[in-house]
Amino acid sequence: MAKVTGLGGVFLRAQDPKALMAWYAKHLGLPVGEWGFVSFVWNECEQPEGDGQTTFSLFSKDSTHFETTQPAMLNFRVDDLDAMLAQLEADGVKIDPKRDNADYGKFAWIYDLEGNRVELWQPLPH
Q: Helices (H), strands (E): how many in the chain?
């Protein structure tokens, strides 16, 4: 039987796609290519703490994990959550004070230029 082998992309609507992509490039260091999008190439050799993974999950429509008016939420892996948050705070990015430590990593949340809640995840070493 044919099956899905991974997540090929995440596509969101934005009020001003160019400005929002520039915000992500500036504040989160996303490598925006010449065509205006970001490609993350998963390579096990580049994962010193274990293999890379992408999660697909569904939340109830009334979940408070992210804004109920927001149909989707981005989750970005980061290499140093505390340093990333300090950097974002210095840039004036809105940061949710909530933090979560799980047995698979540390989490924090920020808000992008258009007010979307974004999750930052630092996986724990394997």
A: 2, 4
- What gap in Å lies between CA 11 and CA 13, rounded to an integer? 7
pLDDT in tens, 53-98: 777 777 888 888 888 888 888 999 888 999 999 999 999 999 999 9
E strands present in the chain: 75-77, 95-102, 105-111, 117-123
Those residues with Cβ within 8 angstroms of residue 52's Cβ, 6 or more apart along the chain or in another chain: 42, 43, 44, 46, 77
In the numeric block, which tokens belong to residue 63? 């979940």
* Whether residue 52 has pLDDT greater than 80: no
Cα separation, 49 vs 14, whole angstroms: 34
Q: Is 88 helix (H, G, I), strand (E, B) or coil?
A: helix
Give the residue carrying structure tokens 């724990």: 124
Q: In which region does residue 29 sit, left (phi positive, over 0), alpha (psi from -120 to 50) or beta (all else)?
A: left
